Amino acid sequence: MTTTSDTTTPPWRFAVTLLAQFALIVGVPAQAMITYFAGEPVILQTAPVDPYDLLRGYSQTLNYDISQVSILEKLPGWETIKAELEADADNAFQPMLIYVTLGSPETEMNQGIPTPWEPVAVGLNPPKDLAIDEVALAGQLYYGQVTYGLERYYMPEDQKDGINDHIADINRRFPTDPPMVVEVRVKGNHAVPATLWVGDRAYRF
Q1: What burial class does residue 64 get, using C-beta atoms within 10 Å of its C-beta: 0-12 exposed, 13-18 middle, 19+ buried?
Q2: What is the DSSP-derived secondary structure letter of residue 82?
Q3: Sheet holding 134-142: strands in order across?
Q4: Which of 87, 126, 120, 108 is nearest to 183 (CA)?
Q5: Is-contact 198 114, C-beta < 8 A?
Q6: I need a labelling partner for 104 at 20 to 30 A (CA). Which of 61, 113, 184, 190 fits?
Q7: Would you call 115 helix, strand, or coil by DSSP?
């Protein structure tokens, strides 16, 4: 006599699978929300690069001082990054994870806008024993530029014309050093944008 075994999948396995899929879907937004509400406020110096992105909607592409290798290469720790780049020539065109340490300014406001934090060190590993007035950002070094996932600001539909006109006016008045900064929230080496300052006017993300 032939016997058959019961191969019915227990209901709890379906529940586990669904929970895992749900975690993947909401995990990144949830982490961003935690960073936004619990992260350390940090001010980054920036200037607009591309006011209109035809593929992704009306936006500003932001370029930060700490994205420029010409600035980072002057900091303690850059020699280690440079040596790694030279030693790993086979992967020269692959993104390299680096960490940029920022120190808070002595004054919080300057001419009506928040004062940017200053980069003080770079490295290949998360810094240990940060001072109470320091944070570290994780970035991807690629083709001589460092990106932090903070480079795009999407304008609200009902405000985009006004914001763009304001940015254009600031750029005309200050062509070499426009007073534009972004407040980001930093937690665990990662950051999310919170506020775009154009002159003394703030626009929430």
Answers
A1: buried
A2: H
A3: 118-123, 96-103, 134-142, 145-147
A4: 108
A5: no
A6: 61
A7: coil
**Two tokens, residue 123:** 């490295």
- Let me know: does 79 contact 115? Beta carbons within 8 Å: no
* DSSP secondary structure letter of residue 151: -
Q: What is the pLDDT of residue 172?
A: 86
Output the six-digit token pair for 163. Answer: 């914001």
d(Cα 127, Cα 137) in Å, to the nearest integer?
10
- CB of 116 within 8 A of CB of 181? yes
- HEC-encoded secondary structure of 33-69: HHHHHHCEEEEEEEEEEEEEECCCEEEEEEEEHHHEH
What span, in angstroms and rounded, lies between the C-alpha atoms of 143 and 69?
10
Six-digit token string for 131? 């001072």
Alpha helices, H only, the chain: 11-38, 69-72, 78-87, 160-173
Q: How many residues are present in the chain?
A: 205
pLDDT of residue 15: 53
Measure the CA–CA gap between 86 and 169, rounded to whole angstroms. 43
